[in-house]
Amino acid sequence: MMRKLLVRGLLAGLLAGLFGFGVAKIMGEPQVEKAVAFERYVADNIHHEAPDADLVSRSVQSSAGLGTGALIYGIALGGISALVFAGIYGRGGMTKAKPTAALVGLCGFVAVYLVPVLKYPANPPAIGQADTIGRRTALFVLMIVISVAGMTIAAIAWRRLIDRTSRWNATLSAGLIYVAIIAIAYVALPGINEVPQAAIPGITNAVTDATITFPPTILWKFRVASILIQLILWTGIGLTFGWLAERLLEPVTRPARRFTRARVDDIDLAAPR
Amino acid sequence: MSTMSVALRESTPISIKIPVRELMPWALFTGVLMLFLMYIVGAEQGASSILGGHMLHEWVHDARHLLGFPCH
């Protein structure tokens, strides 16, 4: 059973990855191109550096490369979603495959992507200094780990609370536990800002020693695209996997219902008995 | 006669649950594999490097940025 569920999770992830690639290509790539052009402009006109030879050309990066990354990531998320689904399906009143899978997708999107990224936002090329990559990655991964752990603690608390109080109160309490954990992490962990910013006296210092500012609307559109890509990935997995899992786990209900309807229709109420 | 068998079939509770001992080996093995795939897309040849070089980093470059990971 677990093998069949996993295969369906990977399939759902593959499909969601395709949609994610579509959104990335249409909404994300224009911003990436502009950011790369900004990077080139700064190198040429401000730092007067010779351009590095491209190991992989921009046209490959923005098509085959982007596609590979989106599909592998989608497949990985699909597999993990199937494992999490298998852990909660049939427990704590989670008796329906579709809503259970949708809930896994929603909670996954919030815990793995949205909450960590609101603390450490996605950045296009030209933002981020080479010598801080280790620290930035470590903090981002730490934020994901805290968020996923917080969501898990909240889920365990919810499972225990539903036996003692109403589902409404159990859900509110679990939500509060997650929010509290995230609030502490948001305050305790240091912020990161490496978006190039020219100094404006009395308002802001220069960020990353820049004498030029990265265009804010490009940054905004890039971050919105990033959020939408992840939303499509998780929604696609939640809905597709739920549909596939229902066909696998709850096959009896559908034919039986159809059979019942046919029988009921067969009964002629006007006929004398 | 037939309506009765339908009623019985419908009232049968569906309670498939994956036993923990069936789930655990899959969760450990596949879970680690899936996390490794995420690492490959998200951080290999960036913050840390197992394979060395920049080829993989450059190949998934755009996806890494757009999926929200620090890239370089």
Explain this structure to me?
The complex is a heterodimer of chains A (273) and B (72). With 273 residues, chain A is an all-alpha fold. Chain A contains 7 helices and no strands. Chain A has helices at residues 2-45, 58-88, 97-119, 133-161, 167-188, 216-249, 253-266. Chain A is globular, with a radius of gyration of 24 Å. By secondary structure, chain B is mainly alpha-helical. Chain B starts with a helix and ends in a 6-residue tail after the last helix. Classes of the chains: A mainly alpha (273), B mainly alpha (72). Chains A and B meet through helix 1, helix 2, helix 3, helix 4 and helix 6 of A and helix 1, helix 2, helix 3 and helix 4 of B.
Characteristic key phrases:
heterodimer; A: 273 residues; mainly alpha; 7 helices; 72% helix; B: 72 residues; 4 helices; elongated
Outline the fold blueprint.
The complex is a heterodimer of chains A (273) and B (72).
Chain A: H1 2-45, H2 58-88, H3 97-119, H4 133-161, H5 167-188, H6 216-249, H7 253-266
Chain B: H1 2-11, H2 20-42, H3 55-59, H4 61-66
Q: Summarize this, please?
A:
The complex is a heterodimer of chains A (273) and B (72). With 273 residues, chain A is an all-alpha fold. In chain A, 72% of the residues lie in helices and 0% in strands.
Would you identify the regions of chain A where 5 or more consecutive residues have pLDDT less than 50?
none
What is the averaged pLDDT score of chain B?
82
- Which value, in Å, is the CA radius of gyration of chain B? 23 Å
Chain oligomer state: heterodimer
Sequence of secondary-structure elements of chain B: HHHH
Strand-residue fraction of chain A? Answer: under 5%
Whole-number count of domains of chain B: 1
What percent strand of chain B?
A: under 5%
Structural class of chain B: mainly alpha
What is the count of β-strands of chain A? Answer: 0
N-C termini distance of chain A: 48 Å
End-to-end Cα distance of chain B, whole Å, is 72 Å
Largest sheet of chain B: none
| Nearest-integer average pLDDT of chain A | 91
